[in-house]
Write a structure and sequence with these properties.
Strands 2-3-4-1-5 form a five-stranded parallel beta sheet, with helices on both faces. It is elongated, with a radius of gyration of 20 Å. Helix 7 runs antiparallel to helix 10 and helix 8 packs antiparallel against helix 9. The chain is an alpha/beta fold. Helices cover 47% and strands 10% of the residues. It contains ten helices and five strands; from the N terminus they run E-H-H-E-H-E-H-E-H-E-H-H-H-H-H. Strand 3, helix 4 and strand 4 form a beta-alpha-beta unit. The protein has two domains: 131 residues, P-loop containing nucleotide triphosphate hydrolases (Rossmann fold), CATH 3.40.50; 98 residues. The two termini are 25 Å apart. The protein binds zinc ion.
């Protein structure tokens, strides 16, 4: 799985039926438009033809866009299920774009799971969200994940990153020193949690393919840990305490 930061124009593998684009809503939206143009335009996304224009104006007949009012409701997804009932012709493709996928409630997400995992022939899902950690686990585990912001990759070189990417022992004194030197803020903490979550989802996939039971269990616990960490993000001024607690918890896995 390519977890690196992508440019807005790189192609993604559409043999995978579900993709999750992580970035600012503007960046994710632009990326989705370009991706759809590349897929549906005869000229590989020229940007100028009627197909490309219709995609941009959200008028194309092979794309259905969804934006929540606040949270998604089950009713809002009705057109999606109605569409899925139609069998596509061979070589025909159809895309659902779910904007603000972090606003999918667990109930809405659950109603989508089966379709996302094994969509009928020709159907694809693009989920857009600002943060990976805001997307319900059942959805994100079924998607190829694409980070569009520079933050995601730069946080992989954050001085605290390596302390949380394995469950092997790190000297607490060394960690405390790194933590003090990092001067990590609340906002940076949120980005770092996202980068770590992304790392562990990747580790989980690798472990699953290798059928490595121990790694599967470790990465599952780490994913739970960082998902929970996201939900109780550090209070102003408490970042250090927050990371110290996480350090103890990841060692306990
Ligand atoms: Zn075109």
């Amino acid at each position: 799985m390519d977890q690196s930061t992508e440019s807005l124009t790189s192609h993604i593998d559409t043999t995978i039926p579900a993709h999750l684009l992580i970035g600012s809503s503007d960046a994710a939206y632009k990326r989705a438009v370009i991706l759809l143009q590349q897929q549906l335009c005869q000229e590989n996304g020229c940007g100028g033809c009627s197909t490309c224009r219709m995609i941009k104006e959200q008028q194309h007949a092979s794309v259905l866009w969804f934006h929540p009012e606040k949270n998604y409701t089950r009713d809002q997804l009705d057109p999606l299920f109605a569409q899925l009932a139609f069998e596509l012709n061979t070589n025909e493709t159809f895309f659902f774009v779910i904007e603000k996928a972090d606003f999918l409630t667990a109930a809405c997400a659950n109603s989508l799971l089966k379709s996302v995992e094994e969509p009928p022939r020709g159907y694809h899902f693009l989920f857009l969200a600002e943060r990976l950690s805001g997307v319900v686990p059942t959805i994100r585990s079924r998607c190829a994940i694409h980070h569009l912001s520079v933050n995601a990759s730069s946080y992989r070189s954050h001085p605290l990153f390596d302390f949380f990417t394995s469950t092997t022992f790190h000297d607490p004194a060394v960690f405390t020193k790194a933590l003090d030197q990092s001067g990590i803020t609340e906002r940076e903490s949120v980005e770092l949690i996202d980068a770590l979550l992304s790392h562990w989802i990747e580790a989980y996939r690798t472990a699953l393919m290798a059928e490595n039971t121990q790694s599967i269990s470790e990465s599952t616990h780490a994913i739970d840990l960082f998902s929970e960490a996201h939900s109780k993000q550090p209070m102003p001024g408490s970042s250090k305490l927050f990371w110290r607690d996480l350090f103890l918890e990841i060692k306990a896995i």
